[in-house]
């Protein structure tokens, strides 16, 4: 009888866990994520996308993406007729449309929204440059979303993120770095974050998250969008409720750069602490100029006037 009771208890617990649909996933550096930052190749990428018709091709091959993009394009067209927030230099229509696409959590439905499909592809569909070229079908969206966010000035702030259906497992050991490895929605409002789920819950200090409230389909969510490459430390974890406290390291790292025009995946994550990609590029140019001056002096190319 006792054996029967224990068996029934086990089966009931197993059934409850199975019915919740909650899965466990590690919280780590997500080395399989597609995290291209397009450093020093933005203009060339833009030219390639335009000349090859890549955006239109991807829209035609994926009707859900095409529908989401066209819907967002109409929304942005209407917003431009009214009051627009101040736009950063270099920010254009496709950047705004990409952000709108990402915030449309109800298209084509709540259960299978396009943003969730896109993030799944960002996290898991790319293992190398070859697989990016053949298996990743949102190249244009990833480019415009990434480079659009890069144009905004950011500062460190406290945000919150609630998740349904996933129990994230923290890394073992101390002083371990983690990334979300996707474009990560968060909110300055704890109550809003809880609406999206409490199977895992994050209190986050982000230094690269962008306030996209005025570019969202639902401004009431007070959304801050964290880029794929921001690096955090887990400073606290409570198993009860799978609650995390993440602190930005004020650093970012990426494995990919300019893959569409030939860049291969790096074997290690390439770190940067610059406030923007523009700053990274300018820093590299300063180093190159310094090397040029030194070499020129050695070769006697400069003369006293």
Automatic annotation (TrEMBL):
GO terms for molecular function: NAD+ poly-ADP-ribosyltransferase activity; NAD+-protein-arginine ADP-ribosyltransferase activity; nucleotidyltransferase activity. PROSITE patterns: TR_MART. Its EC number is 2.4.2.31. It comes from Pleurodeles waltl (Iberian ribbed newt). PANTHER family: ADP-RIBOSYLTRANSFERASE, NAD(P)(+)--ARGININE ADP-RIBOSYLTRANSFERASE. Belongs to the Arg-specific ADP-ribosyltransferase family. This is NAD(P)(+)--arginine ADP-ribosyltransferase. SUPFAM superfamilies: ADP-ribosylation. Keywords: Disulfide bond, Glycosyltransferase, NAD, NADP, Nucleotidyltransferase, Signal, Transferase. Residues 1-24 form the signal peptide. It catalyses: L-arginyl-[protein] + NAD(+) = N(omega)-(ADP-D-ribosyl)-L-arginyl-[protein] + nicotinamide + H(+). It holds the Pfam family ART. It is an enzyme of class 2 (transferase). It comes from the Eukaryota.
């Amino acid at each position: 009888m006792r054996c029967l009771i224990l068996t029934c208890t086990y089966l009931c617990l197993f059934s409850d866990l199975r019915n919740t649909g909650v899965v466990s996933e590690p919280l780590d550096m997500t080395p399989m994520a597609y995290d291209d930052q397009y450093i020093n190749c933005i203009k060339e990428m833009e030219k390639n996308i335009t000349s090859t018709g890549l955006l239109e091709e991807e829209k035609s091959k994926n009707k859900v993406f095409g529908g989401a993009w066209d819907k967002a394009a109409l929304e942005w067209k209407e917003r431009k007729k009214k009051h627009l927030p101040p736009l950063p230099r270099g920010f254009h229509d496709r950047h705004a449309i990409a952000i709108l696409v990402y915030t449309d959590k109800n298209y084509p439905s709540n259960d299978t929204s396009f943003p969730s499909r896109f993030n799944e592809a960002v996290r898991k569909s790319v293992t190398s440059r070859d697989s990016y070229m053949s298996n990743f079908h949102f190249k244009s969206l990833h480019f415009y979303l990434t480079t659009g966010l890069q144009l905004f000035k950011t500062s460190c702030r406290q945000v919150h993120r609630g998740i349904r259906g996933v129990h994230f497992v923290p890394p073992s050991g101390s002083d371990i770095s983690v990334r979300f490895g996707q474009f990560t929605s968060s909110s300055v409002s704890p109550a809003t974050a809880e609406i999206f789920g409490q199977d895992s819950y994050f209190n986050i200090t982000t230094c690269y998250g962008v306030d996209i409230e005025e570019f969202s389909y639902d401004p009431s969510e007070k959304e801050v969008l964290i880029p794929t490459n921001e690096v955090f430390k887990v400073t606290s974890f409570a198993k009860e409720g799978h609650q995390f406290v993440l602190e930005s390291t004020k650093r970012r790292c990426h494995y990919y750069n300019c893959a569409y025009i030939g860049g291969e995946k790096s074997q290690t994550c390439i770190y940067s602490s610059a406030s923007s990609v523009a700053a990274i590029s300018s820093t590299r140019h300063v180093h190159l100029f310094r090397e040029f001056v030194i070499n020129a002096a050695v070769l006697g190319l400069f003369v006293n006037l």
